[in-house]
Amino acid sequence: MNTQELVALCKEEFNAAFGENPQKIVLSPGRINIIGEHIDYNHGFVLPAAIDKYVCFAISKNDTKDCHIISLDLNDEYQFNIHDKIEPITKNWVNYFLGVFSQVQDKIDSGFDIVFSSTVPIGAGLSSSAALECGFLFGLNHFFDLDLNKEQIAKMGQKAEHTFAGVNCGIMDQFASVFGKENHVIFLDCDTLDYQYAPADFGDYTLLLLNTNVKHNLQTSEYNNRRKECEAGIALIQNKHPEVKNFREATMEMVEDLKEEMGDVVYRRSKFVVGEISRIQELVKSLEKNDFENVGKLMTATHYGLSRDYEVSCDELDFLVDNVLLEEGVLGARVMGGGFGGCTINLLKKTEVENVIEKLSKAYQEKFGISLTPYQVSVSEGTHFYA
Ligand code: ADP
Ligand code: MG
Fold first, then answer.
1. pTM summary value
2. Which tens digits make up the pLDDT trace of 72-105?
3. Which of 68, 119, 216, 372 is the most buried (most CB within 10 A)?
């Protein structure tokens, strides 16, 4: 489904449910990340971009105190009153809305109606959850004159995820969804939130996503564990080197030096983080020089770090990366997003895309009995109103 069709569907279903056209349409994108995985919560840098896959909200303010949200994709709906006590509930998807709503409840003076649907695959590492949080808040911001800037929207989206979805995520996903710019990647300093746009230009090469269509349910618990393991790692480093403020200022020598005290797990997590922070800085320089071969090499190094040291990969992802790298014209590949399933991101020659999709789909089907879903995405604009 393309974006026009997605918008038309939401409008039509809004009409069917509420008997009139929606006052606004919000599009909120998913994101890719070239490099810098599990780094946003470790005070490093990341290199994400918004993509042309969106959560679409058809939304109107109404003149009651009731809020009515219809999820087309899950064929479900939820209603609440603006004066209700807002707490997390057992319906997962609703929590993303409630987590946002609870932060602005005191400024909401009327109900609203929403019909939403999405082309961001759910739980595939393209950050459908951030698109949901940020798109909804973007809509509320307009209708209720909340006067929130983009950074506030991103931060409040993140807070909703922490408090209502139970995922202790960093800021990257929400930041990318809100700040995305057509044909540009965002070089984001996750510590200061300073950012720069760089052209998303890979010359004769392009990015291809391959969705494993698996999501192992370790994702949330292991994500939160990784945060704790990293906190333990940096605490040991700071113990010996009090001048080190965070992982960005740590060196590989410091990590090696503390290998025994850290123990195997914390040592390997710390090694990945320090390595990844230096890889991303090298990758940005390679991108400036159009050295795509090195960009690819660094992406692949990230994958093996994530797989062996950070341990957030899985058989399906490793299989795709190992096998795609055997194909002609493929410069690099890695798991993207939280891990344990979802997509790989691959840098390859434009002319090889069809060949790679065909070969990998066949091999993946034979090995796991699951079909692979490829996405050729364009880098697009952040959360916005559909004109
Ligand atoms: P990701 O952000 O990588 O896609 P998450 O597990 O963080 O995966 O978020 C997925 C959750 O977000 C879903 O389980 C659901 O609760 C909610 N969600 C995302 N997209 C939709 C959608 N189109 N309709 C309803 N809920 C959605
Ligand atoms: Mg998410």
1. 0.95
2. 999 999 999 999 999 999 999 999 999 999 999 9
3. 119
Helix (H) and strand (E) counts in the chain: 11, 13
**Helix, strand and coil percent figures for the chain, each rounded to 5:** 45, 25, 30
- Which of these, 132, 168, 147, lies nearest to 40 by C-alpha position? 168
Question: Is 82 touching ligand 1 by the criterion CB < 6 Å?
Answer: no
Q: What is the pLDDT of residue 33?
A: 97
Q: Please work out whether the CB of residue 380 comes within 6 Å of at least one atom of ligand 1.
A: no
Give how far Cα 48 sits from Cα of 102, 180, 199, 303, 321, Å: 28, 8, 12, 16, 20
205-215, strands of its sheet edge to edge: 330-335, 341-349, 205-215, 373-375
Domains and CATH numbers, the chain: 3-201+381-385 (3.30.230.10), 205-377 (3.30.70.890)
Closest-CA residue to 93 (of 74, 111, 80, 79)? 74
129 lines ligand 1 (CB under 6 A): yes
The predicted pLDDT at position 168 comes to: 87
**Mutate which of 73, 128, 167, 218 to test ligand 1's pocket (most atoms within 8 Å of Cβ)?**
128
Task: Give catalytic residues, as residue numbers.
Answer: 173
Q: Distance, CA 205 to ligand 1 centroid (Å)?
A: 30
User: Which numbered atom of ligand 1 lies nearest the CA of 169?
Assistant: 7
Mutate which of 31, 97, 122 for ligand 1 pocket (most atoms within 8 A of beta carbon): 122
Q: Is the ipTM of this complex over 0.95?
A: yes
Q: Check: CB of residue 295 under 8 Å from CB of residue 287.
A: yes
Below-70 pLDDT ranges, the chain: none
Which pLDDT value is given to residue 142?
98
pLDDT tens column, 185-220: 999 999 999 999 999 999 999 999 999 999 987 777
DSSP helix/strand/coil, 162: helix
Query: Ligand 1: which residue has its CA nearest to atom 26?
Result: 93
- Cβ of 217 closer than 6 Å to ligand 1, yes or no, is no
